[in-house]
Description:
Chain A is α/β, with parallel strands linked by helices. Chain A contains twelve helices and nine strands. Helices cover 46% and strands 14% of the residues of chain A. In chain A, helix 3 (35-43) packs parallel to helix 6 and helix 4 packs across helix 9. The first copy, chain A, starts with 6 loop residues before the first helix and ends with a helix.
Amino acid sequence: MTESTQPAAELDRARAGDTRSLARLLSLVENESPQVRIVVKDLMQNTGTARVIGLTGAPGVGKSTVTGALVGAFRSLEDGGYRVAVLAVDPSSPFTGGALLGDRIRMQAHATDDHVFIRSMANRGQLGGLAAATPQAIRVLDAAGFDLILVETVGVGQDEVDIASLADSVIVLVAPGMGDAIQAAKAGILEVADLFVVNKADKPDSHQVVRDLRGMIALAERKEGSWKPPIVSTVAVNGARDDGIAELVTRLDAHWSWLNSTGELQRRRHARAREEITALIFAALRHRLAASNVDELAGRVADGTLNPFDAAEELIAEHVTSR
Amino acid sequence: MTESTQPAAELDRARAGDTRSLARLLSLVENESPQVRIVVKDLMQNTGTARVIGLTGAPGVGKSTVTGALVGAFRSLEDGGYRVAVLAVDPSSPFTGGALLGDRIRMQAHATDDHVFIRSMANRGQLGGLAAATPQAIRVLDAAGFDLILVETVGVGQDEVDIASLADSVIVLVAPGMGDAIQAAKAGILEVADLFVVNKADKPDSHQVVRDLRGMIALAERKEGSWKPPIVSTVAVNGARDDGIAELVTRLDAHWSWLNSTGELQRRRHARAREEITALIFAALRHRLAASNVDELAGRVADGTLNPFDAAEELIAEHVTSR
């Protein structure tokens, strides 16, 4: 690495607004370069100021369009607007080739705005993959001075990236015609929502979706003083309509105030750091197990001559200390 | 535990067709009873004969209905039919109360058939939860003498239960009007499919869904001799229509033959055992970390005074042996 590409120097340039430096830092993260540790150590003291909003929902509900509309809304605030970064996280697929090209194109309305940075992450790496890379990418954007980071993920509870462990506020998008809300509940997406957006609210059965969501929110057990997820109806069409987006921003701001006034923000970020550390430890253990006799033991479990508990005990005795 | 409820005796009764004994064994599994280890050790030598078929897809595509139709088809085979067990796996939710009551009701057509056993698992346990419990439940059903186990899961790549690591054959269901196939690809469900079912094929845009799927299967890189997922169109309506189900059974049988003739079955089951052992080791490590200083380290990462890599290194040095 030449002097001009030292991580600290790159970070300084990224903070000064150099998007090519920022892009290079994010490529290090995405490619799981050993340099990432150096970068993150350098930038830790500059983190913690960005507000992180996650958007998720089933395929086809319009996540990218709503994200684009939110970028526009936060950019055009009276006080000069937020510097906004968008991170589109998508496990790569042999079918799609990995890149969320369509989403990048859909957000081109902001491509010429210097205070908007858009990045897709789709690399499926080795040591923890996107689950490990995404928190580092958020940190890089945070340290680079973005006030707001919008993280768009495909679905919820994906193996690799769990939005609830990444964002301060989680928006769950639903849309009419995507199966009823009870079905959505089965997918386990309701618990993670801080806000619901019923997108495509101009479709005929959107009122029913709102009613169903309202019923389920009412049924959920909730502790005194806890947050009750609001439901916002939107009609977002690229460059044409953004009905409901202003209300969504208002509701997001209310959630942000609640997070700050109750100490919940600190609690969430603490839990997030804990999960991140745990994931790194698991990745290290997985690496060590790869060099163990786990394959021989697995063969014996597969053919029924050993049970999985005794197999695990043997490896725990060898690889996990007992103190 | 009284003598009559000893795991070995329960297992003998379950193998003889006593469904109450079988239900009690599965309750032990679901509740993560310490007895599970004893049960599994007892039954290991009787496992490995059942064929495990997984069904998954987005909410609303008709998984339970297709599962019900498959049960009927496999029960009515000329040679007397398979003994079939259905395991409906669903992470519990504060919104749904956990039980897949609707699914149980939908499959009542088979409720009076002695050779069909249906069970929902929805308990979110402590040590690994459903991800740890589901393989044990499959083992219990396998050892109890079921020839075929249909595992129905909500979505794919759920945090907790990954169908691809549980089943010999994976059916991915899609349906018209659930977002286009490119969107489905983004959800990462295509890679795990051994067979695609386009359900609700009487809907107008089902041909387009089939065309899109066909295009994506053609684009996917595939090694010489590997399995090319077929696409089966179905119209399954409880007790009324099961168009395409006979073809689905034929295709499933072809996949089963392929698994057996290529050694892929053994390879998959070996990989499955390996993941199961790894999950048990991770659960043990998580348990030990809970008693460590991970919370204090996480607090320092959250406030930016420590980076997550150094935090992880400290805990790895203490809890993971280096040899």
